[in-house]
Amino acid sequence: MKPHITDTTGRSQSDTESHRIVSRDEWIAERKVLLAHEKHLTHLRDQIAQERRELPWVHIDKSYSFETSEGRSSLADLFDGRRQLLVQHFMFGPGWKQGCPSCSFMADHNDGMNVHLAHRDVTLVAVSRAPLAEIERFRRRMGWQFEWVSSHDSDFNYDFGVSFTPEQVAKGEIHYNYGTWPYAHEEWPGVSVFVKDDANEVFHTYSTYGRGVEVMMGTYNMLDLTPKGRDEQNVEYKMKWVRHHDRYETAPIATQAPGAGSVDTLFDTLRS
Prior knowledge:
Blueprint: H1 14-17, H2 24-53, E1 58-59, E2 65-68, E3 71-74, E4 84-89, H3 101-107, H4 110-118, E5 122-128, H5 132-142, E6 147-150, H6 156-159, H7 166-170, E7 174-176, E8 179-181, E9 190-196, E10 202-209, H8 218-223, H9 263-270
Parallel strand pairs: 4-5, 5-6
Antiparallel strand pairs: 1-10, 2-3, 4-9, 7-8, 9-10
């Protein structure tokens, strides 16, 4: 018998409706094959993590100034007494009424991680180009507690490849994620890592962009375990479904894969 699953709107889910049904023994046999693949991925992830740690470092010899709730701070100050610093490059430009929905999705995971990161000698900070007053207004709306600072008066975002000048955008393509990127917009997401030595010198150790920022999206890891997965198949803009957590429907509903949308839809949303 094939399962018949409908969402809360009463629509059938064809991908689950036609799925194979087997005996428990058959399921265990196939699960063991998948387990071997999962273990291979785990070992490969461990190997890549080691290669990441073995990357050379770059000394930060440029001064950066950030606007924080405690006043002006340097990059070294952001470590808050720890040796390692994780930076979420949060897409929130000057004059925007709200932060990027996808970056907000990432940031929703920050407060839960923070206490654990702190006990592994890591400070997590979000950085955006918007002035601090605009950042604070949005953060209060979202109820976040993590440290979020403004790089409004520095080159930090530009130097680390997540913000782009009007002149760069006007060319129709930008240099992002270590290559040419055809979606020329003023802001894109990223995650950067820094370390500080005993002499208070700061070094850049790692940055990731594009799908690399999924490392902050624990929700995706959970969705990947489910039958419908991320439910983002055959669409141009995969995260079209994501909303600020205070902007979802009151009663969440299951849907078919969301309709196609353009990358520009994201940026229209940021200014609404």
